[in-house]
Amino acid sequence: MKNKPMEYKGYYANVTCDMKSKKLRGILRGIDDFVDFSAETAEELEQQFHMAVDDYLEFCQEVGKTPCKEWNETFRIRMNSSFQG
Fold first, then answer.
1. How many CB atoms lie within 10 A of CB 24?
2. What gap in Å lies between CA 73 and CA 21, rounded to an integer?
3. Residue 40: closest CA among 57, 19, 10
4. CB distance 38 to 24 below 8 Å
5. What whole-number distance in Å separates Cα of residue 47 and Cα of residue 8?
6. In angstroms, how far is CA 65 from the centroid of its own chain?
7. Does residue 11 contact residue 70 with C-beta atoms inside 8 Å?
8. Are 23 and 40 in contact (CB under 8 A)?
């Protein structure tokens, strides 16, 4: 069974478990800015993730910055049909 990534408002998060502190830690993935969050339970982690995204979007609006959006991991190349390779 494959886990689905956390998603909220078009942002995704990678989640790890810190065994030393016994906390779940998340970081927004695929953007140039650093946004992280943590919690002790999965339910709390989801709430913290939503708050982190909302805070990030609010901060960007306050400072007049366009929020980063996750890059698309797909790479497409369009080639002319006359290409002889």
1. 20
2. 32
3. 19
4. yes
5. 10
6. 18
7. yes
8. yes
What b/e string do you get for 5-21 counting C-beta neighbours within 10 Å, with b at 16 or more? ebeeeebbbebeeeeee
| 6-8 vs 11-18, strand pairing mode | antiparallel
pTM of this prediction? 0.76
Instruction: Give the burial string for 28-67 (b: 16+ CB within 10 Å, else e).
Output: beebeeebebbbeeeeebbebbeebbeebeeeeeeeeeeb
Q: Which residues contact 21 (CB under 8 A, 6 or more apart)?
A: none
Tally Cβ neighbours within 10 Å of residue 70.
13
pLDDT tens over the chain, length 85 residues: 466 789 999 999 999 999 999 999 999 998 989 999 999 999 999 999 999 999 999 999 999 999 987 655 555 566 666 655 5
